[in-house]
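Table S2 (continued). Query chain:
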Amino acid sequence: MKTDEAPTREHVRAPQHFTARVRADGADGWPVQADRYRLVINRACPWAHRVVLARTLLGLDPAVQLALTDPVRELVAGDHHWVFSEETGSPGGIDPVLGIHALREAYLAAEPDYTGRVTVPALVDIPSGKLVSNDFDQLLVDFATEWRAEHRPGAPDLYPAGLREEIEAVSQEMHTDLNDGVYRAGFAPSQESYERAVTRLFAYLDRLEQRLTDRRYLVGDRLTVADLRLWPTLIRFDAVYHGLFKCNARRIKDYPALWAYTRDLYQTPGFAETVDFDQIKRHYYYGMTGINPTRIVPTGPDLGELGGAHGRELLGPRSSVSTVGA
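Corresponding output:
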C-alpha cells in the first residue's frame, strides 16, 4: 500500500531491495571513501532520521554528503516520489550534485527495470549516480562500524561488540511493536485491525516506560543504535502519530520516563539540529491524503517543553557525544 492512498489492506512493510554495503574492505564492490557518496534523506522520515543521526553523532558530515528531498512527495510516472526542490536546497528542483529531480532516477540508474517503492534514506554513489543501498538498518550499523576510519576523534561507539546481541533483540521487538506499529494503526483497513495494532503498540510503550524508569539509555549505560532506532519514533509521536494515526490512548508526554528520555536526547548535542517539525507535520498531514484528505496541518502540539529539565542525569552520566558537528 502506498502511504498517499486510503488503506485497503493490512500494512506490511516490504523488505529493502537495494542492500549492497559500503565496507572498509570494499567487499561488496563499494569501498568506504570520503566524499564519494551522497546520503539522500527527508527530514520527515523516521527511518532516514536514525541514519542521519548516526552521521551527525559520529562526525561523518565531511565524509558523507547530505541531500534533502521536499517534505511532500510529487506525482511522478503515476506514483508519489521523493523529489528535490528549491525549499530543500536544490535550485530549479535539481540536486546540484547528482543532477536529478526525482530520487527514482538514482534507483533506475542502479536497476533500469526496477518497479518497486522508492524510499529514503538512500545512499547514492556520486560518480555513477547509482543507488547503492536503501537498507536503513544496515546503513545505520555500517556507519557505526565500517566507517570508523572517518569518525571524528572521540566519536561514540554506537554498536559496541559486547552489547550487540541485546541491541538487536531489543530493536527487533521495538520495530515490530512500535516503529512499524504506529503505521499498522495509522493505515489499518478495519476497526478490528486498528484495535489489534494500537493495543499491541501501547502494551509495548508500557513495557518501555518500565525499562527506562531506572536506566538512562535503552541498552547498557551508553547511547547505542538502539536509542537511534527508538528516538525518531518518540519525537514524532505526539505531533503526528497521536492524532493522524489515531494512536491516542496516551501521549508520550503522559509517560514520565519516556517523556524525560525524549527530552534528554533532544538536549544531547547532535539531536535537536536533525529535527524539523514543520517538515514532519507537512509530510504526514499534507502529503498523506488517503487518511487526511483535507490536508489541514495542525498548529500543535506545543513542543517548547522539549528544552525543559528532565532529571535523567540522576540515572547516570550522559553518553559522550561532545564536539558533534551540525
